[in-house]
Amino acid sequence: MASFENGSASRAGKGAANARGAIAGLRGHAGFWLKALSQPTIDLSLRTHAGLITRIVESPGSSLPQGELDALVSQLRTVAAKTLPQESLTYGIFSGEADRLSRAIVTLISEEESGRPIAFNALSVMDVALDGEPTQVTHLGLVMVDPDGRGQGLSWVLYGLTALVLFARGGLRPKWISNVTQVPAVVGMVSDTFSDVFPSPLPGARQSFAHLQLARGIMANHRAVFGVADEAGFDEARSVITNAYTGGSDALKKTFEIAPKHRDAIYNEFCARELDYERGDDLLQLGRIDLAGARRYLMSEVPHGSLPSLLAASAMLALQRLVLPVVYWLDDTRAFGTLRPRNPDAEGASGQ
What we know:
CATH topology: Aminopeptidase
Number of strands: 10
Helix content: 40-55%
CATH superfamily: Gcn5-related N-acetyltransferase (GNAT)
Structural class: alpha+beta
Oligomer: single chain
Number of domains: 1
Radius of gyration: 22 Å
CATH class: Alpha Beta
Low-confidence stretches: 1-9, 11-19, 346-352
Distance between the termini: 68 Å
Number of helices: 11
CATH architecture: 3-Layer(aba) Sandwich
Order of helices and strands: HEEHHHEEEHEHEHEEHEHHH
Strand content: 15-25%
């Protein structure tokens, strides 16, 4: 009898501990999203994996004191040195230019106990003209993972979490994203996750005039963001950058044989067909993160056992079906689709 009672008490104690842990985790994620939606400039930390902390910092070049900025850049260089020990990068956040760091959004994953950085993604925000009006394109940017830290399922954080945060901060309005890569695994991830992606081997993928305008604007004014020199060519019809590794990104050039492959062979075959790896070609992909894309990301990329992901997915569905149309209709300060702001000057002043 005593043994039965002790076993029951033990199970009850474990259940209570699990419940407390779940509540604590829920509080942490709720606090993360409250800060994400309220801070004027993002500086957020969240435990995304056991023993790992993810930090997202927006515009570190202008938002952080010099000492903290130097420490952050040093952490990024630590990861880069482990990833490319014999090479160095000179573009984007590694250029040392204040403007580059002020327009970057850095996602850094570190070991919680030691503080050792193991992976990062550096997004950049580009101003590009679309239909004669300025619009912002978020470039998915450089991703690096310490070889010792691979295999921990970090890709859902490095490639999508920050884009999801920016999407939420923007009132869940669709946002353009860009991606420059020759890696089939990344081409597939972007094609599968985001909406209206071109180029892509998926059925229905097509180059709209919006895609073409944005690609032209990016290649004309923002080559330095992804380390492509002026002498690199651009095949507009296929959205392929030829001889791309000539502007500070030389160390990232890969052969097709060593480039990480996607589990779906369609992306591997697409890259082999469209890109000249010996010359050093890249795809310039353009797409949008919208509610459909956010839902795909939550359902397919975020680990299914994550309680916050399930709650977020439910919230997305509720917003799409019930709440969001009303919010858009009542907000007369910003454009959405065919809806236009009551006072156009107000929208321009808000920076949207």
